[in-house]
Automatic annotation (TrEMBL):
<dbReference type="InterPro" id="IPR050627">
    <property type="entry name" value="Nitroreductase/BluB"/>
</dbReference>
<keyword id="KW-0560">Oxidoreductase</keyword>
<dbReference type="InterPro" id="IPR029479">
    <property type="entry name" value="Nitroreductase"/>
</dbReference>
<keyword id="KW-0288">FMN</keyword>
<dbReference type="Pfam" id="PF00881">
    <property type="entry name" value="Nitroreductase"/>
</dbReference>
<protein>
    <recommendedName>
        <fullName>Nitroreductase domain-containing protein</fullName>
    </recommendedName>
</protein>
<dbReference type="InterPro" id="IPR000415">
    <property type="entry name" value="Nitroreductase-like"/>
</dbReference>
<feature type="domain" description="Nitroreductase">
    <location>
        <begin position="8"/>
        <end position="73"/>
    </location>
</feature>
<keyword id="KW-0285">Flavoprotein</keyword>
Amino acid sequence: MWVFPVLRGAAAAADPRTGASIYGAVQNLCLAARVHGVGTSLTTLYAGHEDELRALLGLPEDALTMALVPMGYPERGRWARPKRAPVEDVVHWGTWGVHARR
């Protein structure tokens, strides 16, 4: 399944952050899907085809797609543990480059 979050009133917006609040909802969708064994990925790689997509979906003139979230079940049927850096390596304290003491 493909989910396209759409924002009304964004098609003519000059501010690139217009609609950024929609990504919180997208994150919650992705987290909820994972609980039910459904994989997701947030992408905007389709954006070069926005006009074609607008026609295909019949979007109103003022609407703009904000992302594509493909959803499906993992091929192997189960999840691998995510690979993440330790929080101490990615959190900065007070200013960029100052990491937490270990």
